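It is worth pausing here to work through a concrete case rather than discussing structure prediction in the abstract. The textbook approach is simple: state the sequence, then state the predicted structure, then interpret. We follow exactly that order.
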Amino acid sequence: MIVKDGQLGGIVCMNEVMAYLPSALQRILSTLATTVQAELQEIRIREMRPLEIVWGGGYGFVAPNGAVRTDPGQAYRPTREDCAGILSCSRSIRSIRLKRS
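Step two, the predicted structure:
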């Protein structure tokens, strides 16, 4: 799970988080609507479970094309390789909290 402060103004912080993610997840999450990216608070990444996000306007599941859906059956399901890529980072990113500077 990755947590970020949605009050930080979005895209700059989103780019910091994206640097830790495998390319497949980067591609999907980078196509989220700008308004969702700006208010993103949490990304739930679990192997073979629906990719889920929480933002200022609610929560939803992210489809392979970056669309936010209410149906978890339409969501991208991170693969073993996606999750292994996150776990192989040089430092723990289970939870990242980006603070105001």
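Step three, interpretation. DSSP finds four helices and five strands in the chain. The helical segments are 11-18, 23-30, 34-38, 80-87.
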